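Dear colleagues,

As part of the handover before I leave the project, I'm documenting each prediction I ran so the next person doesn't have to rerun anything. This entry is a single chain, and its sequence is reproduced below.
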Amino acid sequence: MDKRLIDTIEKIKTLSSQNAEFDEAMRELFGKTDSASSVFSESTVGRVDEIYEYCIERVIRDQAEQFYKNFPIRELIPKLVEDFCRMERYKREDNFEDFCLATFQQIENITNWFCQRHKFVEMYEKKKQSDSCIKDKDIHIPIINLVLRNKVVERGGKPLDEYYFNEKIRAVLYFVYFNERTYKYPFDTKYNELNELYQCRNLNHRGGDLTPYQEVIITVILPKKHQYFLRFTGLLVDFVGHISEYMAKKETIGTIVNILECGNVYIRPDGEEPFVIDKGKLLYKIKAFSKGDRVSIERNFLTNEIVDINRITE
């Protein structure tokens, strides 16, 4: 372009920025209704929004990775992190149905993992054949009727992994969440909380009408959905915490090989080198041990710290 034209354009540009009337006349002449400043402003706001969203997504992902950083079922972590990010995104968007789905899927993945483990299924099958009960006020309830409700027990013959989620979660609650130490009331309370989430998750999948039971739950929750964003998030945090605590413990068997006068105990785990336990917080148990006793040693899965020790009675 000719230099004289470029100089003319620059002069017009400068004058437009200095004189509002001249700027208005030039925009009318060329049919331009928006000033350069307004166009710039809109594009800038859009760009700032993009940057803001990117930063929020980064923060949420970092939170998800930190939340599951020490989760002991390592192969589940990538999917759990993705679902956590989706859960938080839907919460920000006020999308309750998809939020419930993403929250539920984290609990469902963990539940299914246990129900596909041979050792867990063995525990469940063994308990099915047991006559052991838990006391509820003045009555004794067979544990299997707590783990699986009566109608499911009566059907029988079905592998645990083939039950619906609301049956499988009862087994995971009893054996893992409560570590086989619970009563009917706390068990039912926690199950009902998880079942509320399950029914809200079904809002995403339901094609037919609500059952009366489902209708009661949904009509109570939906008007209070902003409270349930927080309640269901807390439910997930609580569930994952109990699973981590249960999985954090690993047991080894060993023999007491020496007890010193100071109270320290030397133990040789089967197939490993001996190590010493100072009396510390386990004094009340250690002082009852004798050389040659067989013991079970419970360690924290993550830190390897000994958290409990018990004599094995033949």
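Residues 219 and 262 are 65 Å apart (CA to CA). The mean pLDDT is 78.

All the best with the project,
I.
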